[in-house]
Structures are given as C-alpha cells and as structure tokens.
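Hey, I'm writing a tutorial for new members on how sequence and structure tokens pair up, and I'd like a real worked example in the thread rather than a made-up one. If someone can provide the structure for the chain below, I'll link this post from the tutorial.
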Amino acid sequence: MSLSRSEISLLTAGPLFRGVSEELLQALAGTEGASLVRFDSGVVYSPRHFRRSLAVVLSGQLQVTKGALAVSVLGPGDLFGAAALYSDEPEFASTVTAKGPSRCLMLEQRLVDRLLAEQSQIRENYLRYLTGRIRFLSGRLRTLAQPGVEGKLARYLLPVEGDALTLSATALCQRLGVGRATLYRAFETLEGAGAIAREGKTIRILSRDALKNVISENRRES
C-alpha cells in the first residue's frame, strides 16, 4: 500500500497531519492498522455498520446525514469516524454516503492510540480538530434554537468561511428544518437587509454586520 505524491501533499495540508513530515506519512501507509479503502457510490457508514477507525478522505465526496437532515459534505482532506473511535455505543451517530467513487485512508483505533502517544504534532492537530467540531455543532444547535427562520438562516451563514456558500435550496431546507416557501421568504428578508445576494445555488455574503442585525432583531421579536 502506498500514497501518491498528491495524496501526501493533501494529508500534510489537512487537519490531522499538518506539520508532519512526508517521511512519516510514507512509513504510516505501510503500518499495520492503516489501509487505503476505495468506496463505490452508496452507504459507507450507517448507524449499525461502521468501523472504529478514523478516516481521511483522499478523493471523492461523501454526504453526512442524520435521519433526514443533511449535516455536511466531506471532500478530500476531511475526516470522519471520530464519533465512533473512542465510544462504546453500538450505533454510529450518522450515515455517511459516497456520492461517487471515493478513496480513504483508514486508521484503526490502536494505530491512532500509538500516533497520539508518540507524535505530539498529530496529538495537537487532533485535539484542535475535535475542538473545531464541538464549535461547529454548537453553532448548529444555536441555529436550530433561533426563533425566526430569518434568524436561523442568518446564524447559519454567519460562520461560513469566505464570502460565498454554494448549496441547494433543498439541502438548506433540510439543515434548517424549514419548508422551501419559508426559506425563500427568509432569503428575501436577508436580501432586503443588504446581507446577502443569490446567484443560482450560490449565496454571496455581502455584510456580516447585516446578518448580525437580523439575528438581533429576531431575538427582540421573540
């Protein structure tokens, strides 16, 4: 089993192996407990069928869902499987579905144990990754707790990195737990406030201050 040059570069730029030497990664690829796995389209992890391994996506895209709710889309460099790695629960927290052929580096729990114990940079990276996931999930909970749909949408868009988000209306409805007509009314409110502009599936963030104002007004009205 070996990693390509592009996969090595991808790993060293990702959240788990940032700052780690290429030599260590090449050696890791041949270590017991590490495997390169190719998935075809379809379910990769489900609540009843999963591995206690940490996976790094090397190619392809995977959709993460919780029931009918679309949580996120994973691409090259992203991780999944952390929810099961050190849990005794018999079920995985979500469903992971490959949207097409995908290739992943799978690291079994015992190998992750050794890496965290022996490699301080990987240990620091993993703790930083988990902290980021906690913040992400906390933000999603705040979004769902926001009383008005305009406030939910504004809070969802506020932490988006960069100035644009490309996402279908259907997926956004699932994430916010609202109907399409309600979502479009919220779009109109945010556009009228000068907070966003829409171009097809792309939502451009024009003013984060305007998004914050919508959130504040929503709270006052509740």
